[in-house]
Specification:
Elements: H1 12-30, E1 42-47, H2 53-64, E2 68-73, H3 85-95, E3 98-102, H4 106-115, E4 120-122, H5 130-144, E5 151-155, H6 160-172, E6 175-179, H7 188-201, E7 205-208, H8 211-215, E8 220-223, H9 235-242, H10 249-252, E9 260-263, H11 275-278, H12 285-304
Parallel strand pairs: 1-2, 1-3, 3-4, 5-6, 5-8, 6-7, 8-9
Helix pairs in contact: 1-5, 1-12, 2-12, 3-4, 5-6, 5-12, 6-7
The structure holds phosphoric acid mono(formamide)ester (CP) and norvaline.
Length: about 300
């Protein structure tokens, strides 16, 4: 494992290794045990989109591992003024030990990895959000003590989070049902990749326009914003299309009684999810947000250690 660009690139064993190291680092963290696995190492964090969780969890994670992180906003570095990815990758590789990047194009993340000589971590693109889904799977595991054979239902936009969720569930053998309106489905090539992995892991993949069908007997219900970063101009039109996909108590009642609720956050209460669900007893969204820290520390320790 040289980079974390897409969950599809990881083997099942690599996923397991990340999740079990995350569990250990979380436990040690709670016990006050320091683990300076990246002493003296530096992570550069390039952001061309906003972030709360990704920025803070990577920065704090690096600190807890004994290393240092640099916040590189595209407004401030020359990349934002047209310097090439090629030159940026070559230059940063001379200074730092790893790059985390949040940006629009998946190909920019791939090019950074191709031209640089240090590990690259995808902190979200328009196409994928692998770090989020590692935290999600870890959270499900903490609450259910297993992943294989459980049913995940994702309801809403077939966006970056949904794409990586397909990759992740197929890899670990979780069944996944995605309900999204026509025209807003998951990326077709990612669906094909996930179907390939699902054959090996025993995961069943259901793609539907019907949220009730997706949620039926689910162990986990997941949703995300209807308006991702960069889509702000489409908000009015999207809200109309997605309203039937709102996760509310009626929809939730079709899941298993002990189903948990996940949301990558930021959330928009009253749109993709109602307040009673996201703030209710079955919601584990803040465990999920916390777990970004632990899984990303595991990823960095593996890639940069
Ligand atoms: N879930 C997530 O990636 O949050 P941020 O956009 O705040 O980083
Ligand atoms: N789908 C959302 C996820 C935010 C963490 C977006 O891309 O804006």
């Amino acid at each position: 494992m040289k980079h974390l660009i897409s969950l599809y690139d990881l083997s099942f064993e690599e996923m397991e290794k990340i999740l079990s190291l995350a569990e250990k680092l979380k436990r040690q963290n709670k016990e006050g045990i320091q683990h300076h696995l990246l002493k003296g190492k530096t992570l550069g964090m390039i952001f061309t989109k906003s972030s709360t969780r990704t920025r803070v969890s990577f920065e704090v994670g690096m600190y807890q591992l004994g290393g240092y992180s640099l916040f590189l906003s595209s407004n401030d570095i020359q990349l934002g003024r047209g310097e090439t990815i090629y030159d940026t990758a070559r230059v940063l590789s001379r200074y730092i030990d790893g790059i985390m990047i949040r940006t629009f194009k998946q190909s920019d993340v791939e090019d950074l990895a191709k031209y640089g000589t240090i590990p690259v971590i995808n902190g979200l693109t328009d196409l994928m959000h692998p770090c989020q889904i590692l935290a999600d799977l870890f959270t499900v595991y903490e609450h259910k003590r297993t992943l294989k054979g459980l049913k995940m239902a994702y309801v809403g936009d077939g966006n970056n989070v949904a794409n990586s969720l397909l990759h992740g569930c197929a890899k670990v053998g979780m069944h996944i049902a995605v309900a999204s309106p026509r025209g807003f489905e998951c990326d077709q090539s990612i669906v094909c990749e996930a179907q390939g992995d699902a054959k090996v892991s025993g995961s069943q993949i259901l793609l539907t326009e019907d949220p009730v069908e997706a949620v039926k007997d689910a162990d986990v219900i997941y949703t995300d914003t209807w308006v991702s970063m960069g889509q702000e101009a489409e908000k009015e039109q999207r809200v109309k299309i997605f309203m039937p996909y709102q996760v509310n108590s009626t929809l939730f009642s079709h899941a298993k009684e002990d189903a948990i609720f996940l949301h990558c956050l930021p959330a928009y209460r009253g749109y993709e999810v109602t307040e009673d669900i996201i703030d209710g007893s079955q919601s584990v969204i803040f465990d999920e947000a916390e777990n970004r820290l632990h899984v990303q520390k595991a990823v960095m320790a593996i890639l940069m250690g």
